[in-house]
């Protein structure tokens, strides 16, 4: 049975000290020791270092204020035996009376007008703590979920091998279906997703092929923004999910200097999802309108603003409506248009590697 456990509602929020963004291989962390052993101390003794997940638990949860003045609730739910910490940003009066938010006026399970934009961070959790999709944007309340993994990897495992992908995807789907209605009134027919790096691997590899019928088609509207990551489906695609994917707006966004291991993986994912749409009877024009791709920014992994990971991810969060909700396709504050149909643009060309 799903339970919601609200931890102490404190106002202070911190920042995680050891975070990475790119898909990582366990045991090879760019010089960071992730095997649970800390530096050698006096007398030759070694002291165990807390995992990234354990460090995250030291950061207070609770209620704070979003950039648009709305309310952020940061709490943890036990979903299928996994501790899923999540943040949701919405007007206070849209939270339930039992959520712990001052001004929460809704009853559990009540329908609301707001949809959701659920963000899955990259390896290490940076974007969960930054919460770039906070605030209500074009009718969507921002949600970010923290991976229930020692290294804060969505799907567990390492690199492109996400060994816990099935369980993590199921937990995210159940969080939206069973936990979110207990804390927020929202429109369950308007649930969209944003992936960042490793989060994009979980979305494209597991959640989209295994659960999309829950979120798209049959009158339900969903968009997926896959930033700096992509996988071919790692699970069988049921007929209902294939039909839903043919009604899901999907954008693949990368950069010119993407990570070496992702340079073949993202085009393979593009081709796989194009094939799914074609199997549902969509022609090239319809597929091109539904699925788009771009890797024009001359930056490294997730550096969509050609400057930095954090600001690059923020740029894409600010551009969500323009890119996948029927906007002009220009990245926020720029004249860079990223809406290229996947048809004919599947084989991305990269200029280097980050």
TrEMBL record:
Q: Where is this region: Disordered?
A: 22-67
Annotated transmembrane regions? none
Q: What is the name listed in the Swiss-Prot or TrEMBL entry for this protein? A: Cyclin-like f-box protein
Annotated signal sequence is: 1-21
Taxonomic source organism: Daldinia eschscholtzii
Task: Write out the biased-composition intervals (Low complexity).
Answer: 46-61
| Domain of life the protein comes from | Eukaryota
The question of whether Signal is a record keyword is answered with: yes
Supply the alphabetized keyword list.
Answer: Signal
Record flagged with keyword Signal: yes
Q: InterPro entries in the record, alphabetically?
A: AB_hydrolase_fold
């Amino acid at each position: 049975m799903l339970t919601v456990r609200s931890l102490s509602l404190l106002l202070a929020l911190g920042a995680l000290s050891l975070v990475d963004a790119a898909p990582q291989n366990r045991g090879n962390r760019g010089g960071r020791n992730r095997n649970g052993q800390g530096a050698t101390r006096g007398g030759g003794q070694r002291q165990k270092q807390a995992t990234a997940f354990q460090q995250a638990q030291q950061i207070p949860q609770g209620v704070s204020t979003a950039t648009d003045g709305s309310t952020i609730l940061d709490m943890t739910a036990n979903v299928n035996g996994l501790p899923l910490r999540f943040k949701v940003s919405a007007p206070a009066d849209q939270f339930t009376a039992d959520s712990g938010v001052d001004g929460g006026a809704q009853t559990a399970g009540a329908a609301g007008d707001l949809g959701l934009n659920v963000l899955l961070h990259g390896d290490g959790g940076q974007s969960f703590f930054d919460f770039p999709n906070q605030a209500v944007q074009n009718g969507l309340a921002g949600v970010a979920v923290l991976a229930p993994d020692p290294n804060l990897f969505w799907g567990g495992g390492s690199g492109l091998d996400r060994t816990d992908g099935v369980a993590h995807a199921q937990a995210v789907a159940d969080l939206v279906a069973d936990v979110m209605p207990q804390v927020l009134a929202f429109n369950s027919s308007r649930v969209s997703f944003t992936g960042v790096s490793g989060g994009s691997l979980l979305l494209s590899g597991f959640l989209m092929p295994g659960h999309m019928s829950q979120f798209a088609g049959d009158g339900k509207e969903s968009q997926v923004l896959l930033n700096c990551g992509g996988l071919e489906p790692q699970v069988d695609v049921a007929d209902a999910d294939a039909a839903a994917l043919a009604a899901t707006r999907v954008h693949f966004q990368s950069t010119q200097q993407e990570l070496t291991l992702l340079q073949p993986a993202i085009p393979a994912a593009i081709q796989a999802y194009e094939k799914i749409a074609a199997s549902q009877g969509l022609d090239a024009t319809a597929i091109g309108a539904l699925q788009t791709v771009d890797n024009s920014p001359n930056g490294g992994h997730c550096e969509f603003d050609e400057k930095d990971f954090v600001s690059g991810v923020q740029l894409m969060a600010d551009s969500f409506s323009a890119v996948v909700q029927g906007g002009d396709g220009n990245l926020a504050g720029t004249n860079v248009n990223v809406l290229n149909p996947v048809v004919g643009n599947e084989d991305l060309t990269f200029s280097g590697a980050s």
